[in-house]
């Protein structure tokens, strides 16, 4: 094979960078933030209150699609994910004092959609 011109090498390099960047963005869109089942109720309540002070938590209010199951772990997980999604799906937006996990499996259920 012959030598590549600098222009063609630059185009190939730019294409690879773009491919890597868009691949990372696509991967980030396929993640969700959920509460660790082992998190204490006290921490989950703090997480729920904080997340809902930053984003709308209407979906977990009575009558909302994520109201049931009516338990703290479920509601906190939905609220934490709403915060995570609204802030760019960065791992640090799902830390919640080490009481949350980033998952690749969609936790949506019934009419409750995790965004």
Any descriptors?
115 residues, mainly alpha, two-stranded antiparallel sheet, 3 helices, 2 strands, X8_dom_prot, X8
List the helices and strands and how they pair.
Layout: H1 6-29, E1 32-35, H2 41-54, H3 72-86, E2 100-103
Helix pairs in contact: 2-3
Question: Could you walk me through the main structural features you see in this protein, from its secondary elements to its overall organization?
Answer:
The protein is mainly alpha-helical and 115 residues long. It has two domains: 1-30; 31-115, no CATH class. The protein has three helices and two strands, in the order H-E-H-H-E. It has helices at 6-29, 41-54, 72-86; strands at 32-35, 100-103. The protein has a two-stranded antiparallel ribbon with strand order 1-2. Helix 2 runs parallel beside helix 3 (72-86). It starts with 5 loop residues before the first helix and ends in a 12-residue tail after the last strand. It comes from Panicum hallii var. hallii. This is X8 domain-containing protein. Residues 31-114 form the X8 domain.
Total DSSP helices: 3
- Average of per-residue pLDDT values: 84
Tell me roughly what share of residues is in helical segments. 40-55%
Structural class: mainly alpha
**Which oligomerization state do the chains in this entry correspond to?**
single chain
Radius of gyration: 19 Å
Widest beta sheet: strand line-up: 1-2
Biggest sheet layout: 2 strands, antiparallel
Number of domains: 2
DSSP, total strands = 2
Task: Please indicate the percent range of residues in DSSP E strands (runs of 2 or more).
Answer: 5-15%
């Amino acid at each position: 094979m012959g030598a590549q011109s600098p222009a063609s090498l630059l185009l190939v390099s730019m294409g690879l960078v773009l491919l890597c960047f868009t691949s990372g963005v696509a991967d980030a869109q396929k993640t969700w933030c959920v509460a660790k089942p082992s998190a204490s109720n006290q921490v989950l309540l703090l997480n729920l209150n904080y997340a809902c002070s930053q984003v709308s938590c209407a979906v977990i209010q009575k009558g909302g699609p994520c109201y049931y199951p009516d338990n703290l772990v479920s509601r906190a997980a939905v609220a934490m994910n709403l915060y995570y999604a609204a802030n760019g799906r960065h791992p640090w937006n799902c830390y919640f004092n080490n009481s949350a996990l980033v998952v690749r499996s969609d936790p949506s259920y019934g009419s409750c959609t995790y965004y």
